């Protein structure tokens, strides 16, 4: 319930309405003042005994010299506001001048007569006991809209509320719809802003000694983590960032942020992160106090799944392991982003593997998951691993976008590359317009080439770092197949890769 | 409860939940590689769970293990390939298994231990890092704890439950030939795989296709390409 207070004589007592707030806060949890309509004071009675609070507010105001105060109670702000402004909720008393044009009836006590209710869904038009017969002007329409309403013969809130929404939207526009909703008692104004919940925190202070030893600090932080993580779990929340304040003996405070790769309430994870932080920290003085608070908190969204799915039982553990890997080593779980660059070693950019929500690989954000994948989670909370899918059914034409990728049921010899091509010494023989390698020396050992295919010539970058290579696929006498190239610019031979 | 009733109950559960597996499935069922000929030479029909397998890095190891990773994923489980040396070619990396590229040998070992211990991966392949001594002991403990199959591509076979060797037979390559009878494209090759464990020694010759490489040629193969060369 909203309680609205209005008086024509606010200014005789207080220069600012805000000066009334301290007194009213003794009887209500939240008070908001508004300069509109000559001054409105809102009292938050949601979830409380509204009539009792209204009585108490009137008593408080009377105590500071305000006896002619009207009060309105409503389930929506507009209901409370109009009830307060029109006096006792009785129709006909309120006018367009908000009661100032005539002697207003003074509400000296809150009664059930002041309570206004929004129209029920069955009868959307406000009853005569509420807003139905009030003139439209109490809703403070725009002058142009007021003229329009007057032109179509709509004089009261009841008449406006009786119109069809679609008609109002077409004929009166957005402002008309807003007024139409108010006439129906619908008001979604945010009078009282939501109060943020206090984030879990814990602190510890001592004065007899100072701590500089990392292990002892970790021991103390561990105790604080127990409290904070327990509070997080009680709230069904996870934290992505915590703040650790170290109060030093010299009066300074060191504030450090500890971030986790994924939101978690795991004490073990946070302890590991805090330990890493403290081990790297150089303290200018001894520590005499610790404060740990969860800085970023998200809701722990539980996942439902098939209890008989093999992956479901291990999803959380896998998620935690991958997140731990990401925290310690960075983006090491990767997928390739391939381009059409002629040089194979410049064709791929490895990017962090996106969360797929299924515990299996997806080859980048642009590709659709293969058959058998079901749920896809795009939440930004790092790795989210959910049940793996069951055996996918073969789908015709569902081959990978890269035709080079083998099918799941076969093994193939595939090319692997050295991170950097390795210079080798090669024996060659002439063949038509090129030379063909017949053997090469790598690492002090000579390898004979049984057969070679090529050259596959690749060149480019006229404006940048030019390259011109002649690639050969060579079968070596030990059975391996290697990828050699002749650098036509530098006239050198290189081992670039092998098939395995 | 009579044994007959338990058997009936088990049968009923198996009928009702055909995809459900017993709680000890991780310890009981090896990880099939998806390559029939290879599975036949492996004791139990697959890579053992909860134990270390060492595959000597010669020809064909990666092709077999990548097939095993794909098969694992196709069976609804997770597989991860730890590529320490960074030799995987992006254009040839297939959809499905996780790929981890650690920045150092130590990171690779720590990552492998973490992924093994979490128990979420049915198959973990460590490539490009050769664990030694206590490192191998730690990894062996982790894989036992996690219950997945762990294959290290390394010549060091200590603590391995299963030892694998493979080698491409040199004269087994089959080529397509050009108009001058020059070899143009490799079609397939045969890999000889040998599996050794306590009381087990088996081998098989497996013929596998060769993934066509994708060099983007600038000109026709028979013509000399002079672009990029100094004039």
Please give a structural write-up.
The complex is a heterodimer of chains A (500) and B (231). In chain A, strand 16 and strand 17 (492-499) form a beta hairpin. The radius of gyration of chain A is 38 Å and the shape is elongated. Chain A is of the alpha+beta class. Chain A is built from nine helices and 17 strands. Chain A has four domains: 2-183, no CATH class; 202-299, Dna Ligase, domain 1 (2-Layer Sandwich), CATH 3.30.1490.100; 328-390, no CATH class; 415-499, no CATH class. Chain A has a six-stranded antiparallel beta barrel. Chain B is an alpha/beta fold and 231 residues long. Chain B has one domain (24-209): P-loop containing nucleotide triphosphate hydrolases (Rossmann fold, 3-Layer(aba) Sandwich). Chain B is built from six helices and nine strands. In chain B, a hairpin with a 5-residue loop joins strand 7 and strand 8. Chain B is globular, with a radius of gyration of 22 Å. The relative contact order of chain B is 0.16. Residues 218-223 of chain B have low confidence and may be disordered. Chains A and B meet through helix 9, strand 10, strand 11, strand 12 and strand 14 of A and helix 4, strand 3, helix 5, strand 8 and strand 9 of B.
């Amino acid at each position: 319930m909203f309680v609205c207070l209005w008086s024509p004589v606010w200014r005789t007592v207080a220069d600012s309405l805000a000066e009334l707030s301290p007194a009213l806060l003794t009887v209500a949890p939240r008070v908001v003042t508004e300069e509109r309509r000559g001054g409105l004071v809102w009292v938050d009675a949601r979830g409380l005994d509204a009539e009792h609070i209204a009585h108490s507010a009137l008593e408080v105001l009377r105590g500071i010299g305000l006896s002619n105060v009207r009060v309105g109670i409503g389930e929506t702000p507009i209901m409370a506001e109009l009830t307060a402004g029109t006096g006792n909720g009785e129709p006909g008393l309120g006018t367009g001048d908000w009661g100032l044009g005539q002697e207003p009836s003074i509400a000296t006590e809150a009664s059930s007569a002041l309570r206004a209710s929004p129209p029920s869904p069955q009868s959307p038009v406000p009853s005569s006991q509420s807003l139905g017969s009030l003139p439209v002007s109490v809703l403070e329409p725009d002058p142009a809209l007021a003229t329009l309403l007057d032109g179509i013969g709509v004089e009261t809130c009841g008449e406006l509320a009786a119109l069809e929404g679609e008609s109002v939207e077409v004929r009166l526009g957005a402002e008309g719809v807003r007024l139409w909703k108010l006439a129906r008692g619908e008001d979604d104004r945010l009078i009282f802003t939501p109060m943020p919940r206090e984030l879990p925190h814990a602190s510890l202070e001592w004065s007899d000694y100072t701590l500089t030893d990392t292990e002892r600090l970790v021991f103390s932080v561990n105790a604080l983590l127990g409290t904070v993580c327990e509070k997080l779990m009680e709230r069904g929340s996870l934290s992505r960032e915590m703040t650790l304040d170290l109060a030093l003996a010299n009066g300074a405070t060191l504030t450090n942020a500890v971030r986790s790769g994924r939101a978690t309430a795991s004490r073990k994870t946070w302890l590991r992160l805090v330990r890493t932080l403290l081990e790297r920290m150089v303290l200018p003085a001894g520590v005499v106090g610790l404060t740990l608070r969860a800085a970023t908190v998200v809701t722990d969204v539980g996942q439902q799944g098939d209890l008989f799915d093999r992956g479901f039982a291990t999803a959380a553990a896998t998620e935690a392991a991958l997140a731990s890997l990401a925290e310690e080593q960075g983006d090491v779980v990767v997928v390739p982003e391939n381009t059409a660059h002629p040089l194979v070693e410049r064709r791929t950019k490895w990017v962090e593997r996106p969360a797929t929500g299924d515990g299996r690989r997806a080859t980048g954000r642009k590709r659709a998951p293969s058959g058998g994948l079901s749920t896809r989670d795009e939440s930004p909370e790092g790795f989210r691993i959910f049940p793996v899918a069951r055996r996918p059914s073969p789908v015709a034409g569902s081959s990978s976008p890269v035709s080079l990728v083998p099918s799941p049921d076969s093994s193939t010899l595939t090319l692997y590359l050295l991170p950097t091509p390795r210079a080798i010494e090669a024996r060659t023989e002439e063949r038509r317009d090129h030379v063909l390698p017949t053997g090469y020396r790598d690492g002090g050992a000579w390898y004979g080439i049984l057969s070679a295919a090529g050259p596959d010539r690749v060149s480019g970058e006229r404006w940048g770092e030019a390259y011109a290579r002649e690639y050969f696929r060579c079968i070596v006498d030990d059975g391996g197949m290697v990828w050699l190239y002749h650098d036509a610019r530098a006239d050198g031979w290189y081992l670039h890769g092998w098939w395995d | 409860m009579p044994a007959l009733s338990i058997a009936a109950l088990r049968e009923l559960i198996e009928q009702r939940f055909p995809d459900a597996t017993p709680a000890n499935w991780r310890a009981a069922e090896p990880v099939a590689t998806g390559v029939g000929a290879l599975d036949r030479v492996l004791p139990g029909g697959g890579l053992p769970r909860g134990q270390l397998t060492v595959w000597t890095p010669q020809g064909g190891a990666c092709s077999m293990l990548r097939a095993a990773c794909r098969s694992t994923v196709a069976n609804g489980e997770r597989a991860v390939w730890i590529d320490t040396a960074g030799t995987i070619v992006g254009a040839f990396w297939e959809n499905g298994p996780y790929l981890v590229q650690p920045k150092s040998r130590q990171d690779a070992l720590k990552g492998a231990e973490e992924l093994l211990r979490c128990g979420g991966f049915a198959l973990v392949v460590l490539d490009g890092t050769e664990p030694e001594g206590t490192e191998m002991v730690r990894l062996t403990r982790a894989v036992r704890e996690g219950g997945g199959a762990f294959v290290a591509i390394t010549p060091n076979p200590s603590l391995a439950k299963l030892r694998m060797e493979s080698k491409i037979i040199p004269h087994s390559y089959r080529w397509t030939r050009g108009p001058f009878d020059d070899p143009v494209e490799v079609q397939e090759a045969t890999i000889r795989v040998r599996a050794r464990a306590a009381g087990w020694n088996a081998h098989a010759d497996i013929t596998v296709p060769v993934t066509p490489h994708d060099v983007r040629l600038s000109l026709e193969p028979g013509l000399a390409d002079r672009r990029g060369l100094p004039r």
